[in-house]
Amino acid sequence: MKYLSLMLFLGLVLANTHASAESPNPICKETENGIVKDYYSDGQLKTEWKCQNGHLNGVSKLYYENGTVEKESSYANDIRQGVTNSYYESGALKSICNFNNGELDGDHKIFYENGTIKELTFYKDGIEVDEDQ
Description:
Elements: H1 4-14, E1 34-39, E2 45-52, E3 55-56, E4 58-63, E5 69-76, E6 79-87, E7 93-100, E8 103-111, E9 117-124, E10 127-129
Antiparallel strand pairs: 1-2, 2-3, 2-4, 4-5, 5-6, 6-7, 7-8, 8-9, 9-10
């Protein structure tokens, strides 16, 4: 169970399939409307998934064992939509990217822990593009 939430989170992040509007997301199956939470073995909050009508909708969060937020992702009907932020365990911003219909779209910035930009990549419909295009 310890890694179940992380595997589900990564599966949603990596999957390029779109869930059927009729079938509930497996995460939201038991709680169709509300927040589904999972915990580390020590009782510390591990994940929060916002469910609406059986599907991921709104901001969902993954936490480090120390309680700081690891990742915040926005979903619309099980598909990542909008901004996703990742953080270092210290709480410093690690990366920021935008999704459109589940695909990377726009700037993808990766930061060093001190806040300076480490990498900047541009995406259009999930494909890396030259910023001059």
